[in-house]
């Protein structure tokens, strides 16, 4: 089974423009992420997929592998699908470019889904983490996911799901972490279908996979990523990196 990692890397970001090229302990954030993916030893190959000349050149100059996106894309899946179309691979892992401290254990769990899926019934695997704080649960920036008894995703939403009507019944809430493992064909099918109605309403790309009939297996993790969305996050990441030395 050939397993590759694709790291979509846009230079522009509404909350923190150019964040992937910010310095993190002597190296740009995106290079830290690329090297961390390589160091997991989980992948046959690792690629950066970018729309930015400066990111492309940074990775190439460091001896890494980078692919320039040909066109503007709405989401990471589109960017990866374009790049992977002519690359030989069975499973494609989408690693977030702004999460330089990669959780190799969780990625291993995603890969295990496909190794165990001998009938090839699962199209995607992704991560979820339990959230208990009311503010986190109600925050529309946190995408929530509900699953069936086999941990197949039923729906993703920025709203609070499930709705807690009967307050004396226990209920758990899970946040969707945007780390995906795809069968290559699922990516290509996603790319060849236009944005779907519910996806457009919620602005959640995972929903398009569901609307075109793909099965998504959710894997629970208790590891919260150290993502970089704001200058404050970068400062935290710098301190976290220092603590690891």
Q: What would your notes on this structure say?
A:
This protein has 245 residues and is of the alpha/beta class. The protein has helices at 29-39, 53-61, 76-84, 104-116, 134-138, 184-191, 197-202, 206-211, 231-244, and strands at residues 3-9, 23-24, 27-28, 45-50, 66-68, 91-94, 124-131, 144-147, 153-157, 173-183, 216-220. The model has no long low-confidence stretch (mean pLDDT 93). The chain has nine helices and eleven strands. 33% of the residues lie in helices and 23% in strands. The strands form three sheets. It has a seven-stranded mixed β-sheet, with helices on both faces. It has a two-stranded antiparallel sheet with strand order 2-3. It has a two-stranded antiparallel sheet with strand order 8-9. The two termini are 34 Å apart.
